[in-house]
Amino acid sequence: MGNNLLKGKKGIIFGALDDKSIAWITAEKCVEEGAEIVLTNAPVALRMGEIQKLAEKLNAPLIAADATSEEDLNSLFDQSMEAFGGKMDFVLHSIGMSLNVRKKRDYSNLNYDWMLKTFDISAISFHRVMQTAMQKDAINEWGSILALTYIAAQRVFPDYSEMAESKALLESFARSFGYHWAKKSHVRVNTISQSPTITTAGSGIKGFDDFFGYADKMSPLGNASAEACAEYIATLFSDYTRMVTMQNLFHDGGFSAMGMAPEILE
Ligand code: NAI
Fold it and tell me: Which ligand 1 atom is the nearest neighbour of the CA of 18?
């Protein structure tokens, strides 16, 4: 049972692939909290078929959009505004993919065409989404825009490879765009830096399972789950957090503040 935290709010959720996806669990949470949503993912993800089940369960329109295509994003926002009968209040960008990681290229031997594609999918898409929404005046005053990120933007996690730079770029877009949107119409923009989470994207990183255990021990509260992340996102889409903008918010059980954990020494 929700608390009607998002009653009357409407928004688009990018990136639900299967029931492990942070976006999938967030979509369920937002609807439970009273929101009306549109689900979207890349055409290839729609062909896999899982997301249709979520759309049916939540009674949400499902619209295909490659987040690197301006044409697709234009059509997504047009169709969403039609479905909502007007503007919306929130957007979740939950998209990440690295070609060099997927193809197991070493960090000191990266393919630059793949790197550019990685940046396009994982970071520039966030700017594209925001620019499209702003130009269409699709977001209500005091709306909330979020993207998911990882602490490898600030510190070295060797196997995260070029995703580290993708996340640094993503976080920078949140700050810069957040300024312009706050001034224009009080829309806020933030990133959430989430604990390692067992999902398709997460498990693609080399040594993920061992690292997951390490991070869990290093975090005094343990790793934050996808469910806890969904709850945090719901608060950030709500009116209770309307003065928070241009921030990178750590949702990691305390990991980012730790220097040493005795559990690891043992
Ligand atoms: P996921 O694999 O379930 O989600 C990634 C999504 O990106 C998929 O739904 C995929 O279809 C979508 N996507 C890929 N290319 C796309 C494109 N061109 N257009 C539109 N969508 C596209 O994995 P997860 O973990 O839920 O990832 C969501 C976000 O959370 C990502 O930004 C990821 O980097 C971030 N994150 C994940 C962590 C983890 O350990 N799983 C930790 C911290 C952040």
Answer: 3
Which atom number of ligand 1 is nearest to the Cα of residue 23?
Answer: 26
Residues 167/149, Cβ–Cβ less than 8 Å: yes
Helix axes 22-32, 226-237, angle to 10 degrees: 50
The structural architecture, per CATH, of the domain 10-265 is: 3-Layer(aba) Sandwich (3.40)
Residue 266's pLDDT is: 81
In the predicted model, what is the mean pLDDT of residues 197-222? 92
Query: Ligand 1 pocket check: which of 29, 46, 95 to mutate, most ligand atoms within 8 Å of Cβ?
Result: 95
Tens digits of residue pLDDT in 121-130? 999 999 999 9
- Give pLDDT tens digits for 128-159: 999 999 999 999 999 999 999 999 999 999 99
Q: Which of 14, 22, 126 to mutate to test the pocket of ligand 1 (most atoms within 8 A of CB)?
A: 22
Residue nearest to atom 23 of ligand 1 (CA): 201
**How far is it, in rounded angstroms, from Cα 177 to Cα 74?**
18
**Using CA atoms, how far apart are residues 250 and 240, in angstroms rounded to an integer?**
18
DSSP type of residue 195: P
**Residue 216 structure tokens:** 């869990």
pTM of the model: 0.98
* 48 close to 17: Cβ distance less than 8 angstroms: yes
| Nearest residue by C-alpha to atom 16 in ligand 1 | 42
